[in-house]
Predict the structure.
Amino acid sequence: MNIPDNLLYTKEHEWVKVEGNLARLGITDYAQSSLGDIVFVECPDIGEPCRQFKQFATVESVKAASDICAPLSGKIIKVNQELNHKPEFINQSPYEKGWFVVIEIEDEKEKNNLLTASAYSEYIKKLSE
Amino acid sequence: MLNLRFKDIELKTTPLINAHRALGAQLAPFSGWLMPIQYKGIIAEHNWTRSSCSLFDICHMGEFIIYGQADKSNLEKIITVNLTRMLSNSCRYGFMLNENGGIIDDILIYKIKEEQWMLVVNAANIDADEAHLRARLSGDCKLENASGRLGKLDLQGPLSGDILKEIVGEDISRLGYYRFGYFSLLGEKNIISRTGYTGELGYELYLSNENVEELWGVLLKDARVRPAGLGARDTLRLEMGLPLYGQDINRDTTPEQAGLKRFVDFNKDFIGKDALIKKRKEDAKRKLSYFIADSCRAPRQGYKIYSAGKEVGVVTSGSFSPSLSRGIGMGYIESAYNNSGTQITIKQGSVEIEATIVDKPFYKQGSVRGEK
C-alpha cells in the first residue's frame, strides 16, 4: 500500500498535500483499492467552501457511491476537471493524477487533527488485522 | 468513507477460500458467506466474461435432491412451472410461492429422471426453502439437502464451450440451452448444465466439495479462463435484466409484479395461485421496470423514482454498466408511468439522476444461445 511521507491523512482515507496556504486533496491508495473501479466523481465548484471532516465530493465505483470528506476547511480554488472524463485516474494514480481539488486553507491549526504518514500506516495495518 | 471491516468468524466459507486469498481477492460477506467480490477489478472481470471466459465460485448456493414423482410428491404444487411436462435432462426456472403469492425463492429445477429432481436455490434461502419443502412434500418422498456436500462452479463466456470441450469431451458441444447431462470430471460423474446468470454462453458445474479446488485449478490453467467475483456477477446479471432475490424480488413481490408471469403455469394447481388470481388487478398497478441513466452515475437500491415531479417508484438494483458505460437499474414503478421511453428522475439526498425507461435486456449482444 502506497502511503507517501509528505502528505497528511484522515481516518476516512483522504489525503492532503499542504503547499503554503494552499492544500491539494484526494483519496488514498487504500481507499481506491477498497472502492474498486471508480466511474464517476462529483466535486464542488470553484469558490465553494468545504469544512474539515464534512462531505465535499462524491465518488461512485461500480460497487457503491461514497461520500468524500475534506481533510481541512477552506475555499475551493481549483478542481481537477480531468476526472470528469478519466475517473480511473483515481485508481491508477491516487496521489498524482487523481487529485480532487485545491483549497485555500482557512485554519492552519486544523492540521493537528490529521494523521502523519506513519500514523496512517499504523492505522491501516490495524484495519486489515 | 467506507466501513470495510467485518468479523468473518461467523461467516461460512467455500472450499475455495484459500484459493481466493492466494489470488488476492477482495472478500466480503454475502448471504452469510465470505465470498470473493473481485480479484483484479469488476470492470475487467465483467469485460473478460463478455469476450472470453470467467470462472465463478458459486458453492454458496443450495442444492436439494428430491426423490419422487412430481404430482405424487406434491412438488408440482410447490413449484410454479409445469414439472410433469419436463423432459429428463432439462432445467427450468420457476418460483416457490407462499399462500399470498409472494416469492419465497426463485429456483432452477433439474429433472434428473422421472422420480428424481434437483432444486438449486439462493444461499440466503436454504433454511427457509428446506422448511417449506419438508412441510409440504408428501410423506413417501425423500428430500436430501445436498448443499453441504455439493459445490458449484460457473464457467461463463463465449469461449466456455470450447474450453470445457477440452476437459470433458465433445459431447458438451451438443448440450442445448437449459439442458444438462452427466460428464466425467476428476473421476466422478457430475451434472453440467448449459445455464448461467450472465447472458453469455455458459455452464454450471456441480461436483463434490472435495473436488472443487482441484477443478478450479484445472480450469484456471487455461489462459482463456480468469476468475471473476460476485461484483462482476452482479453487473453481468443486471445488464441482462435478471432479478436478484432479496433485492428485486422477495416475499412481498409476486411474479406478476416482477414481470415474470411466464414462469407461472396457471393451468395447474400450485400454492399461491388463488392469491395471485385475486390480486391480479392490484399487482398490475406496480411493475418491475428497467432504466438507463443519462450519465455514468448509477441508480442504487432505495433511491426514489420521480416522473413529472411525482414520486412513482423505487430502485431495487442498480450499478454502472461496463458494457454501456452508463448507470443502469431496475425498480418498481407505477404502471401508468412504466412505458419504454418515459423520462424519469432518480433521487437520493442531493443526488439527481436523469434516466429513461427501456426494455430489457440492457445488453443485447450476449452469446447465451450460441456462439458470438
